[in-house]
UniProtKB/TrEMBL annotation:
Pfam families assigned to the protein according to its UniProt record, in alphabetical order: LRR_6 (PF13516)
CDD domains from the UniProt entry: LRR_RI (cd00116)
GO annotation, cellular component aspect: cytoskeleton
Subcellular location(s) of the protein: Cytoplasm, Cytoskeleton
Record keywords: Cytoplasm, Cytoskeleton, Signal
Protein known as: Uncharacterized protein
Keyword Cell inner membrane: no
Signal peptide: 1-25
Entry keyword Signal: yes
Source organism, top-level taxon: Eukaryota
InterPro entries: DRC5, Leu-rich_rpt, LRR_dom_sf
Amino acid sequence: MVGTQNVGICAFLWKFCSHLPPCQSSQDCSEPNHICVHHHRCSQNPVCYPLSMLDENICPPIPTMTNITVTTTTSNTITTSVTTTTAVVLPPVYRNPVLEKIIETNKNLSRLEIHFQNLTDDDMEIVAYYAIRNNQILTSLDLSGNRIGVDGLKYLTDAMLENKMLTSLTLHYSSINENVAKHLADALQHNEALTRLDLHNNRIGVKGAQYFANALQNNAKLKILDLSSNIIGDDGIRYLADALKTNTELVSLNLYTNLITEEGAQHLADAMRYNKRLERLFLQNNIIGNNGTRYLADTLKTNTKLITLVLDSNKVGDEGAQYLAESIRSNMTLKTLDIRYNKIGDNGVQYLASALKNNTNLIGLDLSGNEITDKGALCLADALRYNTIIESLTMKNSKNVSSTIKQQLSVKDHRLQF
């Protein structure tokens, strides 16, 4: 039979792949009553599959499956004239009734969450087939807390290439290492639908960060990327920063808890001088310190895109607060600055308060959990008399501010939150 290229097979594998003859270079089969197919359980090379072994309960009619003209001769040998091809994917042999019921129950919802169910790579084949390939409603898939390896991820990413509706994928706590990260990053370079990827709390490491950096240089769709808690470190940040210099789509990057020091902050600050798209940068719970804050603050003076910067829990002191105060005097786009749980005292607060008097764009400043006393709180309250733009100035967990001052200031200006 003259076969066809790139056609999937909707039949269970009846022989070892090695027993199936390979297709000819022209993607034809010399044997009668055979079709040239790609079988998902064989190699990437097409093989000749006997028509007699097709499962008629699963397969569409042969002419529909391959868009071919079928002619039966007097010897019952089938010949064909190929026009176009259509891939047909085999339903999973492996079964998980509980998982299948969850998918069936939620088949009409745009968001599917299957958290912490100890799902394996075999289960991912079920998810890929029923929730992604055969569902054009689903836009957001959350598989956090499952055990996903390279094979499982391949099922998902292959299916996502066929689904143009799925735009958000969340894989928190999924034991994703650098090998799995490589496959996912490679797949991103071919995916034209996904706009949000959340990999919070995995183990992609430096190499994983490098793989995603490569993907960012070739992916024109991804807008939100969360790589928080992934042991990336300064070396991994360097790869991502280099990618940011040329990336024109990413608007939000979350890198909290990644062992980033002042060196990593310098890499990011340098990238932001070139990047014209990033709007939100989350760097909380790292060890950037005063020097790292200086690099970022210097970039803020001329940056015209960033609207949110989160630096809480980064060992930033009064010196760092001074650098940030200098930057917000000239920056015209930053809306939210979060510097909670650092080491900022009254001296640092005075720099910030002075800058706030003339700032016309910042709407939120969070100084909770710092070393502010009554003096610093009063200084900030005075700055708000001149600033009518800011909507909230938060100082929760300020243990050195007396309850009397907290009450007085809160009543006087509702924008002050203790």
